[in-house]
Amino acid sequence: MNKVIFTADDYGVIPAIDEGIIKAVNAGKINSVAAFSNHHLFESRIKKLQDSCAGKTFEIGCHLTISSGKPISERKIGLLTRQGSLGFRRRKYFKKYTQMRRTKHTTQELNDLHYELSKQVEQFYKYDIEITNLSCHHNTLFFFEDYHQLFFQVAKEFGLVVRSPLNIPKAMNDLYISMVVLRLFDNMSKEDRHRILSHTRNMRSFLSQYEGLPDMPIALNTVHYGPLALPTNRLSNCEIDAYADEKNLALRMELSNDAPEEEVMEYVFHLIDDNYDQIDAYCEQTKFSNSRYTGIDAGYFDSRMAEQRALLNFELSHLVSFESWRNLSRL
């Protein structure tokens, strides 16, 4: 039986997404929640998760972000200036991941980045919320080798397990990185775009040579993700049903062969409350969230609903054994 961690990403911003995640945890389909800490309602949203899922076995992780919402830190230089590498849009919000820039002041940039990431983790401890792991929105901290090293450094400083940067299916991740680099054409230098591609292609070598590598699952499986948002029209309820059936089949096939006993795979899910009649109301929530969390916008809500519907209708008990993030360091 496969040892897995089933993680729901992006908790703490959109109420309908939070509700979908809570239902999945209570249904016993999710044992890990990746939560943002830089939303202005962070404390109340996390408390709702804990209260609504009391008695259920699940862990909370910090979903670091440098590409959506507002920074927690007050710094206005380097990383957090409009002219800086990842600065605020209108000096308030992080830039989109497709608008990222690197500065020439690398040391200051990395110092600012370290400060911001640490503050996002510290938010959990500020409210006595136990966390066990780190991940990052859009995988932006896996784009550059020095960012990646800093991600590992923060994990070590707080004694946390991390999400693996090795993605399955690899072709899906390669396509994602290629699209990111293409969309960064006007914002990032040719040299920096090359650095993103180079680090992605040499990821296994980077991990094998890294001293003091944090503990992590064997890989991150995104087979349940999608379909990609369609710019022309929303999926119908019947189309969501069809995608949900396809997802169930793909997940069953992926889990049909037992992995080696010592290996733990993390599967990531992007969920939303499965109520098709309310999808327009859910889309309205993005307009009034005061957040600007790119990547979890209304254009993907039909896809999220397909993921939610598939997961809640999937029988797990004979295929997987849920593993704890805490146990990864003991394997």
UniProtKB/TrEMBL annotation:
Keywords: Carbohydrate metabolism, Hydrolase, Magnesium, Metal-binding
UniProt KW tRNA processing keyword: no
SUPFAM superfamilies per UniProt: Glycoside hydrolase/deacetylase (SSF88713)
Cofactor names: Mg(2+)
Taxonomy, superkingdom: Bacteria
Signal peptide: none
InterPro entries: Glyco_hydro/deAcase_b/a-brl (IPR011330), YdjC-like (IPR006879)
Protein name: ChbG/HpnK family deacetylase
Annotated organism of origin: Reichenbachiella carrageenanivorans
